[in-house]
Specification:
Elements: H1 3-14, H2 25-45, E1 52-55, H3 58-70, E2 80-84, H4 89-100, E3 104-108, H5 118-124, E4 129-135, H6 147-156, E5 161-164, E6 181-185, E7 196-200, H7 202-205, H8 228-264, E8 270-271, E9 282-286, H9 292-297, H10 319-323, H11 328-332, E10 334-338, H12 345-364, E11 381-389, E12 394-403, E13 406-415, H13 418-431, H14 444-451, H15 462-469, E14 472-473
Parallel strand pairs: 2-3, 2-4, 4-5, 5-6
Antiparallel strand pairs: 1-7, 6-7, 8-9, 9-10, 11-12, 11-14, 12-13
Helix pairs in contact: 1-8, 2-8, 3-4, 5-6, 8-12
Length: about 475
């Protein structure tokens, strides 16, 4: 949050304001703050204040736009909705819910750069199409759609267009001309979490039905007492973002380019998304040859994600990158870097150094490299055993130097999750001095306790046992 916005939150909370819907004096003061904020939000996107409906965030705004538009059409069962396969889950899930209720839905595929061709959209339109819903800027890749061209398609066919502008508001030029519905959220532009808004055009207001019912607040579009401190802070954040947008965009774009220059010199790394048609503050990069969770775990000094910040704990490869043509392995080994007002060139240098060190170290330590036995000078036989594959998510190779049946040295190469790396390293350390015939991988329960491995990972860790069972002289 911008410090000036945080100060406003504090000041408003100290005033002890009443409900903005009430007629008493403290309610009137709250109402005045909210209406000022409504005008500030509207000014950022070229709208009028009365066209802004405050929500709890972009997720609620997206649900209101999609479900609220289609609710009247559900009974007729002749409605059709179009979206893009790379949309945020707060768009995809409402659309898929509509599909279970009899609404026809189309999820278009972008090109490999993440862009939607307006001609592809036009071909997908039907006489029954009631809504097209699209992200302006993708939250994982930073790719910016040509909203003007896509809007022109919708206007030619008189189809309402909803745009999720969470990642673009305050960062790219934005105007609601030709757009029927537009979602935005405060925390993406220096405001507090937990508040957002939906722009509703005059022509679309009669088509939209509220999804939260109660006291009829927000001109009947969204019931519930507004959080005055959050709404006021949202308004100020929009005003500040509008004032600094051009200068800040240039500064942040320079930081993004600095990071990409540093990372692009690493072997085989890939930029995800269009190279130029993108927002300044997001860079998404795939790191081939390493297991993504292990790379992420090695970067504890950085605040980043493996995909959507909302969804990065799932451990699943990004569906956004899969839609761009990346295979599961590449999608899983991708990192999303974000930049903001506090990011400095020194931090970028640190990030380049940390990512480079971790990536090269993990690549060199996988079985894709030659068995690590070339420098062994001592007497004895060399044994190598491996199992698994990168495409399976786990690949393990043990290398042993054995003299008179006793292990003199043990090394391991691993492509796998951090728990598999830790289990293999512990085993290799414990093999030295033990008879070759007595080596044991341990049990899944022992691994679970020793390296705190989640139960769902124990199955793939059985590959450790397979690798030991495959030990043969070389």
């Amino acid at each position: 949050m911008d410090p000036r916005v945080a100060s406003l939150v504090h000041d408003v909370l100290r005033q002890g304001l009443g409900n903005s819907a009430a007629a008493h004096a403290s309610g009137a003061r709250a109402h005045a703050l909210i209406e000022t904020a409504r005008a500030q939000v509207a000014a950022l996107i070229g709208a009028r204040a009365e066209q802004i409906v405050f929500t709890s965030g972009a997720t609620e705004a997206n649900n209101l736009a999609i479900l609220g538009t289609l609710q009247a059409a559900l009974a007729k069962r002749d409605a059709h909705v179009i979206t893009l396969a790379t949309e945020h889950k707060s768009v995809l899930e409402p659309v898929r819910t509509l599909a279970t209720r009899g609404v026809a839905t189309t999820e278009l595929k972008p090109d490999n750069d993440g862009l939607l061709d307006p001609k592809v959209l036009e071909r997908a339109l039907r006489p029954q199409t009631r809504l097209v819903t699209l992200l302006h800027v993708n939250n994982e890749t930073g790719v910016a759609q040509d909203i003007a061209a896509l809007s022109a398609v919708c206007q030619r066919h008189s189809v309402p267009l909803h745009v999720d502008a969470s990642q673009s508001a305050g960062k790219l030029p934005l105007d609601v001309a030709g757009i029927d519905l537009l979602s935005l959220t405060a925390h993406k532009l220096g405001g507090p979490q937990g508040v957002g808004a939906l722009f509703v055009s005059d022509r679309h207001r009669g088509r939209l039905q509220p999804q939260i019912l109660g006291g009829g607040q927000e001109r009947g579009m969204r019931a519930g007492t507004l959080a005055t401190h959050q709404v006021a802070a949202f308004g100020l954040a929009c005003e500040l973002a509008a004032t600094s947008r051009e200068v800040e965009a240039q500064r942040v774009a320079a930081l993004r380019d600095q990071l990409w220059r540093g990372l692009s010199s690493l072997p085989e790394v890939l930029l995800n998304g269009h190279p130029t048609q993108r927002v300044p503050g997001i860079l998404n990069v795939s790191f081939p040859g390493v297991e993504g969770e292990s790379l992420f775990a090695a970067l504890t000094g950085l605040t980043l994600s493996t995909g959507s910040a909302c969804n990065s704990r799932s451990g699943e490869p990004s569906y956004v990158l899969r839609a761009l043509g990346r295979d599961s392995q590449l999608a899983q080994s991708s990192l999303r870097f974000s930049f903001g007002r506090d990011t400095t060139t020194a931090q970028i240098d640190t990030a380049i150094e940390m990512v480079s060190e971790a990536y090269l170290r993990l690549r060199d330590a996988t079985p894709a490299s030659a068995p690590p036995i070339a420098d062994w000078q001592g007497q004895g036989d060399r044994y190598v055993g491996e199992a698994g594959a990168a495409r399976l998510g786990t690949w393990v190779r043990f290398a042993l130097r054995v003299l008179d049946g006793v292990v003199q040295e043990a090394r391991v190469q691993v492509y796998g999750c951090p728990h598999t790396l830790a289990a293999c390293s512990q085993l290799a350390l414990g093999f030295r001095g033990r008879p070759l015939a007595a080596l044991a991988a341990g049990t899944p329960e022992q691994w679970r306790v020793a390296v705190s491995a989640p139960i769902e990972k124990l199955g793939r860790m059985l590959i450790i046992e397979d690798a030991l069972g495959a030990l043969r002289p070389t």
